[in-house]
From TrEMBL:
Organism: Oryctolagus cuniculus
InterPro entries: AKR, AKR1C, Aldo/ket_reductase_CS, NAD(P)_OxRdtase_dom_sf, NADP_OxRdtase_dom
Keywords: NADP, Oxidoreductase
Family: Belongs to the aldo/keto reductase family.
Protein name: NADP-dependent oxidoreductase domain-containing protein
Active site: 55
GO MF term list: oxidoreductase activity
Record-listed substrate binding positions: 117
Record-annotated NADP-dependent oxidoreductase domain positions: 19-300
Domain of life: Eukaryota
Site feature Lowers pKa of active site Tyr, where: 84
């Protein structure tokens, strides 16, 4: 098997490519760039593309995937596409609508993975972030277990091959896992995870429940001022990471990605720069020693670039 196509088994019988392209970008970045990056990624061998309703780029990403199917580079079944249910669609009767809106933008018949984006419901409507007069986000009272049941129905309908969650902590995962009448366990939990926030406890918990941990922000973050405190250290400038990059004659980004793969984490590499997209797939070409891994484990500061709650 081509090492670029390494996959992790999911608890529902499907599998997920262990390296994916993340497509989130700050508002200032034209949405077309997500499409261009997707095309480049597929050309160089990526088969896992991650997006979301909230990124507002699914039309562009879908167009890019379809163009690569049309030109014969890939078949639909070669691509593993992840989308996410936004928080304004958490009422059970809106869940399928949320997914169908994404499918319509993508012009695809199904997604390979559909995730609850955050464990917090927001007031339904057109606004991505509905706010009151004081500028506070307007939350909605919805039982996430009821949302999960509606997610299960989307899987049964064939609109999503697999279903999972994102940004859930151990307690929120337990709520779903211990739900009476649970039909499908979440196959994964996608969370912020990098060398400054290695999520080791959550990773151990997920492994014990046969849930795959998927890491976003694995290279630090895009440092979008909307979310990220600009005084936070830049992950890829860390001296330990840079020393290991020098030792292995690889980029700091590759060290950060390789670390995740070796601990059994599926990792999303976010870049819209052609050189970096091509470089990041070299993650399969080398290995870190146990001493390297230990040194990298020691970098954890429980530092979040992205806010944990909305």
């Amino acid at each position: 098997m081509d090492p670029k196509h390494q996959r992790a088994a999911l608890n529902d019988g499907h599998s997920i490519p262990v390296l994916g392209l993340g497509t989130y970008a700050p508002d200032a970045v034209p949405k077309s760039e997500a499409g261009e990056a997707t095309k480049i990624a597929i050309d160089v061998g990526y088969r896992h593309i991650d997006s979301s309703h909230a990124y507002q780029n699914e039309e562009e990403v879908g167009l890019a995937i379809r163009s690569k199917i049309t030109d014969g580079t890939v078949k639909r079944e070669d691509i593993f596409y992840t989308s996410k249910l936004w928080c304004t669609f958490f009422r059970p009767e809106l869940v399928r609508t949320g997914l169908e809106q994404s499918l319509k933008k993508l012009q695809l018949d199904y997604v390979d993975l559909y995730l609850m984006h955050y464990p917090a419901a927001m007031k339904p409507g057109k606004e991505l972030y509905p706010k009151d007069e004081q500028g506070k986000i307007m939350h909605d009272t919805v039982d996430i277990c009821a949302t999960w049941e509606a997610m299960e129905k989307c899987k049964d309908a064939g609109l999503a091959k697999s279903i999972g969650v994102s940004n859930f902590n151990h307690r929120q995962l337990e709520m779903i896992l211990s739900k009476p009448g649970l039909k499908y366990k979440p196959v994964c939990n996608q969370v912020e995870c990098h060398l400054y926030l290695n999520q080791s406890k959550l990773l151990d918990f997920c492994k014990s429940k046969d849930i795959v941990l998927v890491a976003y922000g694995a290279l630090g973050s895009s440092r979008d001022p909307k979310w990220v405190d600009q005084s936070y250290p830049v992950l890829l400038e860390d001296p330990v990471i840079c020393a290991l990059a020098k030792k292995h004659k690889r980029s700091p980004a590759l060290i950060a990605l390789r670390y995740q793969l070796q601990r059994g984490v599926v990792v999303l590499a976010k870049s819209f720069i052609e050189k970096e997209i091509k470089e990041n797939i070299q993650v399969f070409e080398f290995q870190l020693s146990s001493e390297d891994m230990k040194a990298l484990d020691g970098l954890n500061k429980n530092l979040r670039y992205y806010p944990a709650d909305l």
